[in-house]
Batch of 3 targets.
Target 1
Amino acid sequence: MSAVTSSALRPLLSPALMATLKGLGILAAIALAIVLLVHSGAMPKGSIGHKVLAAPFIDMWDLPDLLVQTLWEGLVAGVLYALIALGFVLIFKASGVFNFAQGIMVVFSALTLVGSYEIMTQRMGLPPGTVVAILALMIAIATMFVLAWLVERIVLRPLVNQNEIIMLMATVGLTYFLIGFGEYIFGGNPKVMITAQLGLPVGQTQFNILGGRVNIQHLDVAAAVIASIMIAGLAFFFQYTRIGRALRAVADSHKAALSVGISLNQIWVIVWFTAGVVALVTGIMWGARSDVSFALEIIALKALPVLILGGFTSVPGAIVGGLIIGIGEKMGEGYWGPLFGGGIETWLAYVIALGFLLFRPQGLFGEKIIERI
Amino acid sequence: MMFKKLALSATVAASVLTAGFAAQAQDAINFVHNTYRTGAFSGSGIPVGDGTRDYFTMLNNRDGGIGGVKINFEECETAYDTRRSVECYEQGKAKNTVLYVPWSTGATLAAIPRAHIDKIPIFSMGYGLSASAVGDVFPWVFNMPITYWDGANAFIQHVAQQEGGFDKLKGKTIGLLHLDAPFGKEPIPILEALAKQHGFNLKLYPVAPAEMQNQSSVWLTIRRDRTDWVYNQGWGAMNPTAVREAARGGFPVNRLVGVWWAGGDDDARPAGDAGKGYRALNWHQTGANFPVIQDIIKHVVDRGQSLSAKEKVGENLYNRGVYQAIIIAEAIKNAQAITGKKVINGEDMRRGLEALNMTEAKWAAAGAPAFASPFRVTCSDHNSQSAVYVMEWDGKAWKRLSADIQPQKEQVRPLLEEAAKAFATSNAGWPARTEACQNNS
């Protein structure tokens, strides 16, 4: 009877599910072994083994509210990392260019938003509030469109069919131009994001649960929701619309796309503009958590491990990669960071990504490219 | 032919420029000043740079300079990058600057081994290598009015006052939230010594420069450690983020105390109401109600010669820049008086700095009565370990919270001397002091 059941079930379990179950089984066995070692006294408190393998999990068990808080912070950070990575993925898919300027586009778009608001309220005398904030938002979006158009005209068009490294260097040049231009126009002073004026929620709700407290920032909820909607919208746009299909065609082959009448120039403007809007949303969310300054550019580096993990060409990869990196680094810093003296999350993100690459060199969702010699 | 023309033009241009600079150098005192108006730390660098720049512009406009000689003040942009700071040092050297002001602990450390060779004194005001307070070992480096070690000591004194005595510190957890850079790590040795002495647990919370605006993990760790007090040794974008994250994580902001560099108005203001209660150390007053600030407004700001917005004149870090400029101007006056020269050089400036005695009367004469504590530099003490006070952000401005806190010199000075000795020993060939001691005027 049991043999019949087993053979009947076998087709239901895909190889991937089988591998997952196998992995979970191994993890459970390791966990059991650790518990036995701790209880038997073979792994005494204070030993390296205990500090690495047992103490962090005991902390999680003892302070479940902090665990929930850590997971939540990781989730929010992960969604925002995914958003940054998405900006890179969009441009890489369309033009095969690693857009080094994505980080400064985050700063530039956010500065345009806050700077326009300041000019309208402080120099032009318009009343501060939501109407002016929306107007500033529209100006920022329009600016990102103009930037996309200029980039296509001045940077990309003359470099069609050039080596990828030349395109990369062009985006490096664009980065330095935007830094200088942004500082010239807006100054180097940090600015406060117009969070409330944009209608974004502020404040927090505290949940007294699990014997402690979990603080949920309203802005973080909004960030997660907006980023999720945006990611879903973009995924739909590129998967099911005509422009989206054209974009994928361009990503596959510039020459083939041109031969069937797809306008490369138009697609590039659309993609750079979309990446600009993604940068603007990222800038608003990160800016609201701290302030809007050129230091935000560094945040874009967070996209690199996400891209390594998720693959440079995959929208779902950016999302899943962002979440894994976000949650992984917060958990790592929180529970294992003290073992290294803290401050490990910057490199931990790369370790996580490289760990995944050992098993999937093309990234989680990247395209497997086989080139024969 | 074309090349010949170009070469000729370049030669003529170079000759004109050189002649111009030489003429300028003859009747002016050159001072190349590091600033960072760009980059991740510009939020802190801009107001400090504005304060210093405006003060010297005011002296040139109002008094025709110092001792009848214009101050040829020039900024060199570093973006808080040590590599660029070294380039600025070289630029300053080429332009015969009388003083090098690094505005970065990393840049200070890079310049210290060269100062005595190039005869350019270094003034790292309240930052840099704490041990450089020992003038016997570092005759070319000045870091008055206080070192990071004294600051950390004063912070622990403040905590003890708030907790009801040093004996109440036993068992408490005190954290150092610091930029993971030489500047941020400076107070660690003294805090370790104090933790041992008073029995509190010291926790270190480094923040990598790349994570300055992404501190949620650090604050979760602080929550898990149930840290009672946090000392913030932050700079630039790290500070406003720290204040916000503290509030987000439910950490009482009145138990978050910043070093004097973490006390900018723009460090506390972005947090809005959540920033109320944030504390920081300070050694001078804030606000524009001082004759010197009013003179700056009259002679510089109102003439459209300042880079600062008028409403920012008098903010804490702006006044920090003015404070620095007043000290430098006094040292130039000293050097002129000692040498009898109007146009001084780096060696003269070193003597002027070593002869500094900023009495109450001198502060008042500079248009800054009761602006800061008096202090005196001596040949062996290039710092003075002056008092600080704790201020608190009320949502709109900084308000003084505590009386003056005098660092425990008897505890800190031996540690500074020990560290200075260790520096000289570990840097083979470090020269013994040969510079004559300048009597204080």
Target 2
Amino acid sequence: MSATKASRIGEEIWKTRIDKVNAELVTLTYGTIVAQLCQDYDSNYQDVNKQLDKMGYNIGMRLIEDFLAKSGVGRCANFRETADMIAKVGFKIFLNVAPTVTNWSSDNNQFSLIFDENPLADFVELPDDGRAQDELWFSNILCGVLRGSLEMVQMQIEAHFVSDVLRGDDTTEMRVSLVRYIEDEMPPEEE
Amino acid sequence: MSYYFTILSPTDTPIFNIAFGTSKSGGDGIARFRFPDTAQYMNQFIIHSSLDIVEETQWTNGGMYLKHIDTYPPAAAYISAFLTPSGARFLLLHQPPQLPASNSSSLGASSLLGASGSTTRASSSSIAANPTSPQTEEAVRQFMNEIYESYVKTAMSPFYKQGMEIRSPVFRTKVTAAGKKWL
């Protein structure tokens, strides 16, 4: 399935089947969660990143079901197709953004998502304690969502942000790499 | 014209300060107050002393922009105020430039302060020279509204807490830009 077709599907579902909510509600709720985590972890941003990723993982594991039900798409033929599906359908229907898929590695197992806009990060300015700018990945929950949802469809991936406009970078970029396809395994024999 | 702009939290804590000069009619945007550099705190004194009047006026006036509400003649300083619904006060002190003293150059600095009160009301309608003209009121209103917009965005940041000092460089840039644009 081509990227343009995926865009069309995403657009169509977004228009017809998605309940919309106020953007500020999402932004402020997510912002509050992150700010609260920073406070709870005494500004240990590594831990905050980890916690956000974990929350995202739990969301992703359930969200994939919703995604498949709403989109009705079938199995992707390869990882490139998966990438387009994530960017043009997944992000489109849940966040109404369509990040650009780019920077493929030569073995087709790694790609980058470039976010032109990020509804989670509107209004946000990172704390100016001299560390948040270097340590906190504000939207890290998205990495967890991808990890969780792909795991449920037999793909073990690793996702992390490599740049973020909130930190003063030019772009917001997430790097996604396929670790392996999870084969069906027989449960360990019980004796 | 030189400006000193302050945002006060609802509990009268200053949360943002900036001094800048006019960029209109050839101004270079640098503040030149009449106080010596060692007495810049005078700006804060004058601004804060106008708070009583702000509080008197705020319930009699339906609008958020209170226009020019106070003057401090010894320094020829004029104060304009803008209130946000949540109780933050935006106060702008403007001080017209010292006019080139053609007749009083020999009288020394003290007379300049006295003379300026009358000269600033002189005919010119340019924003820089006449702090009480309708044009100035309008320019200040535009300025305040623009700042209000940026202030709301800054206050929406999840890491900003009500009443905290605004340290955001983005906000400072926006205020400077608004000053350049309108004043």
Target 3
Amino acid sequence: MEWKQYRGSLIGGLVVISLFAILIYNNVDWRACLEPEAEGFVLSCVAENTSAWYARYGVVMRQATVSGLLIGGVYGLVALGLTMIFGVLEIINFAHGALMTVGLYITFILFDTFGIDPYLGLFITVPLLFFIGLIVYRVVIHPARDAPHHNQLLLTLGLTLLIENLLLMVFTATPRAIRLDYGRGETNILGLFVMQFPIRIWRAVITFDKLLAFLGALVVTAILYTIIQKTDLGKAIRATAQERDGAALVGINTDWINMITFGIGTACVGAAAALVLPFRPADPTAGNLFNITAFIIVVLGGMGNAIGALLGGLIIGLTQELTGIFFPGSPDLIGVFVIFILVLLFRPQGLLGQAA
Amino acid sequence: MTISRDYQILAGLTLVFAILPLFANQFQLTLLITLLYWAYLGTAWNIMGGYAGQFSFGHSAFFGIGAYTSTVLFLNYGISPWLGMFVGAGFAALFGAAMGFLTFRFGVKGHFFALATFAFAEMSRLIAQDSDFINSTIGLTMPIIGGDSWSQMIFEDTKLYYYIVILGMLIVATMISIWIYRNKLGYYLLAIREDEDAAAALGVDTLRYKIIAVAISAAITAIGGSFFAQRFGFIDPALVFGVSISIAVLLRPIFGGSGAIWGPLVGAIFLTPMEEFTKIFVRNPPEFLSFMKGRAGFDVLLFGVIIIIVVIYMPDGLVGSIPQWLERLRRRLRGQSQSATQEAAR
């Protein structure tokens, strides 16, 4: 193993750490320590100030870290779908978030009309979204397979407008939230043991639905990873992603693989949708946030890189929550965009990607 | 000196658009203003996205900078928007050049560039929403002056003046567009669009000309932003920096034919009336579609469908596709007689 392989993650890590260092620097009152009347040694004064800052903001920061990592898992799952589609089809699927919104509404209808629990509903939402993905690919994406890249981007953009506004027409802009009747207080986990929710770790709160969303996202990611790595289908997908013509030459039906991949990618957002609906109400533009973060994660983690997607998801989730603290009142996506542009400029192949 | 064909077309169109308002009622006049306005913005986008092939998905950044600069200068310092719009254009050009330098310098290309422009636009929106000196999310409102004022570019009674202003702006923008297209700069940009590496190998300073294209496009867009602020009298970050502006700006040139001089205008001529009529349709639908009454979203939905159809069936836009269709039709009509002559020749 050469160190070059790790250089990317190293640089990325340093950028993120220095970003946070700058943030902390701006929030701790260091300058007071440089004044002549400051007490004691400069360093100890700084340390004192920092610990005072931590005493005041420590809880908030721990909470943000926990929330960021939890939602980051879901971001990672959404990004995994996007990165698979990109890896195989080389299309930036702008409609990824809109398809997630579709998943949110399907989960909502299942719960609201048929009384199906969203977590059980996963077994309906995921296959349904898979088929929606197949249809969308066949009808919309496939005819433009050979179009220039920006036209394909435009195509998925048109699809987004179509889906979003169709949902707006049918469901109006009213947010649709669901409320689980369990997950608060003593909760029986599958009849095996009883847990107290929300969990508190160092006064940071972990709610039932967010924990389940995180764990569910990890499980789905693991399943998908196994499929990609161990099965024949996965092998065919990887082969197509690596070398389309070569894969076709050895008898892989690449058109079929395209379609399946788009379906699997869409199924990912179906799972993510079912997992987040208990704490993120559905509205026609609800998927946008996940869409934007997924793009950034995919660029961050390296196009077509599954592990990178998960890692990027955690980083972006963390960044988003932490910027909310350090720049109170500022929109929490701003730090995410800063990271995005830094990565685009200095490491366009992503943290884990190999240089072209 | 002969006048080139493009300028002849421009002169003819100017004449047509100068005569049209004589026959227009208030509604039609508003429609015409909107049409010219989107054609103008499309022309600006076309220089960067069409000629140079640098697909921008973040023109709202330039638009917003223009709208905010002229409005802040006017409201806080009493500087006339006629001057302020050029200050805004300067700022936007600087911003565009900086953005272009950063991204192009590091070899960001294709759809990555599109995503980068999107990120820059979203960032400018977030920053604007967080800046108190431009009233953060509340936005800025133009004063009501109770009449028309050329010096302040506010026309509350006579909408025709807005029409004159935007027509003038469109003519100038189109002249710039034609000039670029027919001169060295245009050839460089087209070469970059077709094959950047080959262009660089032939000695075209690709970085420089791409940045120039972005800056020109940004400046023209920013002036459009100032016009928007003057005409509607209200701006806020979500309105002028939002994604919807970025999409609307690129829609006309793509539909009409990106990379063609007249693409944006053709696109606007087709899309703008359609947009207006869908709005009327949704407001007052026929009996059997009465469930659609007052439902938001149908007009944008239609845009989505149009984009999909355009990309799949006419990737070159109307300007590019119609001649192809005509050619195919002509061939089909001639088909029989031609095969007959071929038979005879044998």
